[in-house]
Amino acid sequence: MPEIRCAHDDEKYVIYLPTNIELDVSPLGLSRENSSPRIIDLQNKEEYQAVWKQDGKQLQLTPCYEDMLIILRKSNSGRACIGKIH
């Protein structure tokens, strides 16, 4: 299992993933009901909306193969946007 790094503040968690894995965020107290996930592909700087698994506690595999950031904003603290990061 690759090492997963995480940083957070009052509004969001930022998680670095070196490889594409399904990610259970329930240990952080996060789920589909209280957070909005985005993915940033560090290879091409594309941003994607993450997809929850049916249980609402795990994120599905991402469109990125390696080196990505998962940004989980807590509800009512931000907006969802998709596009290229400059």
Unreliable spans are: 77-86
Question: Could you say which structural class the secondary elements and strand pairing correspond to?
Answer: mainly beta
How far apart the termini lie comes to 31 Å
What is the β-strand count? 7
Net shape: globular
Strand line-up in the sheet with most strands: 1-2-7-4-5
Q: Please work out how many helical segments DSSP would assign.
A: 0
**Helicity level, as a percent range?**
under 10%
Largest sheet: 5 strands, antiparallel
Strand-residue proportion? 35-45%
* Mean pLDDT value: 85
- Give the C-alpha Rg: 12 Å
| H-E order | EEEEEEE
Can you offer a commentary on this structure?
The chain is globular and about 30 Å long. It has 86 residues and is mostly beta strands. β4 and β5 (47-49) form a beta hairpin. It contains no helices and seven strands.
In short:
This protein is mostly beta strands and 86 residues long. It has no helices and seven strands. The strands form two sheets. Strands 1-2-7-4-5 form a five-stranded antiparallel β-sheet, with no helix packed on it.
